[in-house]
Write a structure and sequence with these properties.
homotrimer; alpha/beta; five-stranded parallel beta sheet; 5 strands; about 15% strand
Amino acid sequence: MNDGTTPDKASLIVMSGDMDKVMGAFIIANGAAAFDMKVTMFFTFWGLKAIQKGNLTGKSVMGKMMGCMNRGGVEAIGPSRLNMGGMGRWMFKKMMKKHNVTPLATLVKQAQEQGVRLVACEMSCNVMEIDKSDFIDGVEMGGVATFISEAMDSKFSLFI
Amino acid sequence: MNDGTTPDKASLIVMSGDMDKVMGAFIIANGAAAFDMKVTMFFTFWGLKAIQKGNLTGKSVMGKMMGCMNRGGVEAIGPSRLNMGGMGRWMFKKMMKKHNVTPLATLVKQAQEQGVRLVACEMSCNVMEIDKSDFIDGVEMGGVATFISEAMDSKFSLFI
Amino acid sequence: MNDGTTPDKASLIVMSGDMDKVMGAFIIANGAAAFDMKVTMFFTFWGLKAIQKGNLTGKSVMGKMMGCMNRGGVEAIGPSRLNMGGMGRWMFKKMMKKHNVTPLATLVKQAQEQGVRLVACEMSCNVMEIDKSDFIDGVEMGGVATFISEAMDSKFSLFI
């Protein structure tokens, strides 16, 4: 691609689990991929929800407590501002549907189809007791070195 | 400018509507402009408040509900940490005034005077039912491609 | 270092005071330093907690009120999502200890040992009435120009 030259890169760290920020991350990633950029998304802590299969259950009691507060899967994510007892997410989804905004699950699928690399932070997975098998297919495991080496030759890097 | 070469660029995405973060964004933008950089600020979701004229009213019931929770205009923005029933904003403003910190409205004006480009995210405006006429003069409308193409040749890009 | 060439740079602005984000910032900074990058961390507002000695007391009543809500020192920092009456921090720390995650205080020390430059935002210190003597040894004071000039020739810059 790009006449024999290496493609431009972009890298995103997603630590937030808020729906609006996670959607923003995927919209930017898909936009950059549409510009033929090679995009790496590095998910840490609450951001891991976005690439989980659906139900997160830690094995220990504490893992379960965190799983309880932090149920995985893109359907469980609320927006950062309006999330009052779930009302926010319901309303936000309604408005996005009304205005034909692509849902998060579709954005994730599009990212994978466009070759966006999805990397889960190993340390966060350890702390939150999430297993590789909890993630959707195609997710890689990686450490901070994975992010740094991508960011070092990226045209832009964002912390979301 | 810059002896015939193109100026260095910086690009900022502002999704947050918290006063401290929005102020930080404008302080960085104005600082970069003072270095003769060509700065683009791309406002999405809650960040759109910072460049609105004052009163945001969506046309549908849901738009009104979101407008109610998200009243526009720089005077309505509270800091992310201290906003307890409005007390935080009051105290924060008092302290900033006492210490001669430039108010947000002035920072926005300075940014425009220094040629900082203010772009409102079209998709967010659709979802939140905000119209171009709701923004202060000089605000452009743009999509994610607008941001990507700026970020691709920016010296630095930040997600705020 | 680097065979006579100047080292690659990375710059981070830390505005958040949330434990998970501050830890993320230091993990990235230490990771980049391990890649022989010259890293500058620029702390503003709530992020200043991470590099304070422990107890923050503003001199005026308002400074004291803010100090009360924003007690300094790395031990006082809670994670952004789970902080319910202190429970979150306790649980988070327990899980991190169980999984052998380096504590924040150690990450800060490692950063200093690796030559990461820690800069406190002067304007934020003024507003929050924090003095240079409130910071751990080795912290520099700086303005937005300090950040811009580093970010301009950094391989990546992040707003955290």
